[in-house]
């Protein structure tokens, strides 16, 4: 008893209690011993009976993410009290998972006794609430603590207009002119800065009004007014402003209430920017089409980065509503394309107009319009052939252009290609004639290395520039593909057969160990479908880039029947849906980099059954490839 009392008097927050109370607490303690690696509490599962004070040994506490990775790992030693925050602030459920290490002994205090101390002694309860407050300042702790059971749905809701502030939205810099500026000059300024609203300042530089496209239409064009008159004769007012600390919903209500279409944004006493009603409403819209429009209106790399970071939320919502993964892929691709085009245009605006016509094309999964969240940059540039004296100048421009585009895309979230398939690589920025030679040599040599390059660059798609250049390249390819190419198809078939469906002899899902989990690689499971469809598309000179579109074209040519096409499309997009859901969950729920590993134990029974059938389907089609392209059923 004396020993416990002496121990407690050194433990926070028990050392805040009067001695006579401490004696009563010491009398209520139960001594508990734990063997090595005993799981004592599980996060959001174990209901806390009370609190533990470590006497000797060690507790290891952490959060598990959905991939069973330990996050925010902490080690607690003698004198540490665990459970107070859980009892007081988490519905009596353990906030974290706790494992006892070798030789751990704790003193246990029952929940009712702990609560009695909290009610009686303000300093005692404040110790736990203050500790909790400090922990909530850690963004990762707050993320895992606040995560509800239906996280994907509530995450979307938490980002709505009732919780977001104006400072979180990208607003435009103020474009203004003096009140005596002629109307026509005001319109020129608006055109120069590409704005639909310009603010008017008086002689003291105070903003006294504004002019919009609608103002010019109604007050000048419709009335055939004099465009040389001072702009303050036709400007609109009053000025409506709002603080950066205001909530978005306040701004929207203010706009509807005052019937203004533009707000000035104020930080303290200083105007720092303006925002339109359309921009605000677009920020709130969950419709992918409206979201894409908001991407088009983005004005900086940082805003584009934020837009891309919010795409997993949209994908989760779309998949949750039952939207087919093929459509979701199209949404992701359109957003990614829009971002890339914005980046390209911004670089051109900085560097000046290109010295030659060109095409910026995308390759691989991006080229096939099958982008996921674990996709790096795959792109290349084709420019028109120029006279000898201009070649170096043209090449220098496009290599510099490509580097700037790639760096901005990387900053936004499209990481550099580890294999170097990017336009900033001098190998993949060339003239049209050079590109024709590339394709010709890949098809002629037809060794495993060149076959991989040919496969990657066959999955190419126009993104920006002179479409005619791309058309000419495809016409060239169409002619080349009519030549005997048995060797290249043989190597493509061998490559396609490297990836076997992950099924055991007994038709169970074959896994491998990654960390503490047994997983399979869903990307490699999908690769055989991509490969076999590409091979048949090449053989029949089909230039659709998307796997689903290629399959439909192959059905039109009678290569696959309707049942076969249905099986492959259903299989491919079922796998794609699983892949996208898993990656979106890793980004949103776990705040980790997405990968392609799936734990079968996390799947439903229906999903497992569907997977096994899909893997059997792929296996059957691979047998067909062996026969048709290698003439060897066993090779």
UniProtKB/TrEMBL annotation:
Molecular function in Gene Ontology: [protein-PII] uridylyltransferase activity
Record-annotated Cyclic nucleotide-binding domain positions: 13-135
SUPFAM superfamilies in UniProt: cAMP-binding domain-like, CBS-domain pair
Protein keywords: CBS domain
Stored Pfam families: CBS, cNMP_binding, DUF294, DUF294_C
InterPro entries associated with the record: CBS_dom, CBS_dom_sf, cNMP-bd_dom, cNMP-bd_dom_sf, Diverse_CBS-Domain, DUF294_put_nucleoTrafse_sb-bd, GlnD_Uridyltrans_N, RmlC-like_jellyroll
Segments forming domain CBS: 170-227, 235-291
Superkingdom field: Bacteria
Protein name per the record: CBS domain-containing protein
Organism of this sequence: Mucilaginibacter rubeus
The organism's taxonomic lineage, starting at the top: Bacteria, Pseudomonadati, Bacteroidota, Sphingobacteriia, Sphingobacteriales
């Amino acid at each position: 008893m004396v020993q416990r009392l002496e121990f407690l008097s050194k433990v926070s927050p028990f050392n805040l209690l009067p001695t006579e109370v401490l004696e009563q607490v010491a009398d209520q303690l139960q001594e508990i011993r734990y063997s090595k690696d005993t799981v004592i509490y599980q996060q959001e599962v174990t209901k806390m009976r009370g609190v533990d004070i470590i006497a000797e040994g060690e507790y290891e506490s952490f959060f598990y993410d959905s991939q069973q990775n330990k996050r925010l790992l902490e080690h607690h030693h003698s004198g540490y009290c665990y459970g107070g925050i859980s009892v007081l602030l988490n519905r009596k459920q353990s906030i974290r998972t706790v494992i006892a290490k070798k030789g751990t002994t704790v003193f246990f205090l029952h929940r009712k006794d702990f609560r009695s101390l909290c009610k009686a002694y303000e300093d005692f309860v404040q110790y736990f609430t203050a500790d909790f407050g400090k922990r909530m300042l850690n963004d990762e702790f707050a993320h895992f603590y606040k995560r509800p059971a239906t996280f994907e749905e509530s995450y979307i809701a938490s980002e709505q207009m009732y919780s977001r502030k104006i400072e979180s939205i990208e607003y435009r810099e103020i474009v203004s002119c003096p009140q005596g500026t002629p109307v026509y000059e005001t319109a020129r300024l608006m055109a120069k800065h590409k704005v639909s609203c310009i603010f008017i300042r008086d002689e003291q530089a105070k903003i006294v009004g504004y002019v919009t496209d609608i103002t010019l239409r109604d007050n000048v064009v419709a009335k055939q007014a004099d465009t040389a008159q001072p702009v303050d004769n036709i400007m609109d007012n009053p000025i409506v402003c709002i603080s950066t600390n205001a909530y978005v919903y306040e701004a929207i209500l203010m706009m509807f209430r005052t019937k203004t279409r533009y707000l000035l944004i104020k930080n303290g006493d200083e105007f720092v920017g303006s925002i339109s009603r359309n921009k605000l409403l677009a920020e709130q819209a969950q419709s992918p089409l409206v979201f894409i429009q908001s991407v088009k209106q983005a004005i900086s790399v940082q805003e584009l980065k934020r837009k891309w970071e919010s795409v997993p939320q949209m994908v989760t919502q779309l998949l949750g509503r039952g939207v087919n993964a093929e459509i979701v892929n199209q949404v992701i691709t359109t957003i990614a394309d829009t971002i890339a085009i914005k980046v390209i245009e911004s670089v051109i605006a900085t560097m000046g107009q290109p010295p030659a016509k060109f095409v910026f094309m995308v390759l691989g999964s991006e080229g096939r319009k099958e982008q996921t969240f674990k996709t790096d940059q795959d792109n290349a540039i084709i420019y028109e052939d120029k006279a000898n004296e201009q070649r170096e100048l043209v090449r220098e421009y496009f290599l510099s252009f490509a580097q700037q585009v790639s760096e901005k895309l990387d900053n936004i979230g499209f990481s550099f290609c580890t294999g170097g398939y990017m336009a900033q690589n001098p190998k993949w920025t060339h003239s049209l004639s050079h590109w024709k030679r590339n394709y010709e040599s890949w098809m002629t040599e037809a060794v495993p290395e060149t076959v991989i390059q040919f496969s990657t660059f066959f999955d190419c798609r126009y993104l920006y520039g002179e479409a005619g250049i791309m058309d000419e390249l495809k016409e060239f390819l169409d002619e080349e593909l009519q030549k005997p190419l048995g060797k290249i198809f043989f190597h493509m078939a061998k490559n396609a057969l490297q990836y076997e469906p992950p099924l055991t002899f007994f038709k169970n899902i074959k896994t491998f160990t990654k960390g503490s989990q047994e997983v399979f690689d869903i990307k490699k499971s999908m690769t055989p479908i991509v490969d076999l469809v590409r091979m048949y598309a090449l053989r029949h000179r089909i230039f659709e880039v998307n796997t689903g579109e290629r399959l439909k074209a192959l059905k039109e040519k009678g290569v696959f029947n309707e049942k076969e096409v249905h099986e492959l499309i259903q299989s491919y997009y079922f796998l794609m849906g699983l892949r996208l859901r898993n990656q979106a969950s890793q980004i949103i729920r776990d705040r980790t980099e997405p990968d392609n590993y799936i734990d079968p134990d996390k799947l439903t029974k229906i999903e497992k059954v569907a997977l096994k059938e899909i893997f059997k389907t792929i296996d059957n089609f691979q047998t067909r490839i062996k026969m048709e392209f290698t003439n060897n059923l066993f090779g």
